[in-house]
Amino acid sequence: QVQLAESGGGLVQPGGSLRLSCAASGTIFSMEVMGWHRQAPGKQRELIATMDSAGSTNYADSVKGRFTISRDNAKNTVYLQMNSLKPEDTAVYYCNADVRHTPTMISRYRYWGPGTQVTVSS
């Protein structure tokens, strides 16, 4: 099993920045795709950014040019740098990771963190 833990959320003024981190622990051979989603109350959960093990990234149009995803494979950690934050970015942000547990098994399993609140307000 794998546990994810997000950190770095909080209250920030419009135009400000936050850096979220998500550390994975447990039985891990390799981390494949890691990513971030967000969900505001009453709204659908949105894909924000992903990065695979080769470094290929995908971003939602709403955050392109403002958010940057990165990862440290040695630490099993993924980051989300958020700049030029807007009130519309207010949401709970969730980390996810696709994990390969052993080198001989093809199956990969997706795990989710409990989420961290980001509030953008003046």
In short:
0% of the residues lie in helices and 56% in strands. With 122 residues, the protein is mostly beta strands.
Describe the structure.
There is one protein chain. This protein has 122 residues and is mostly beta strands. It has strands at 2-7, 10-12, 18-26, 30-39, 46-51, 57-59, 67-72, 77-82, 91-100, 109-112, 116-120. Strand 9 and strand 10 form a beta hairpin. The model has no long low-confidence stretch (mean pLDDT 95).
Number of helices: 0
Portion in strands:
over 45%
Query: Helical amount among residues, as a percent range?
Result: under 10%
Number of strands: 11
Q: How can the largest sheet be summarized?
A: 7 strands, mixed
Element-level helix/strand string: EEEEEEEEEEE
Tags for this entry?
single chain, 122 residues, mainly beta, four-stranded antiparallel β-sheet, 11 strands, 0% helix, 56% strand, elongated
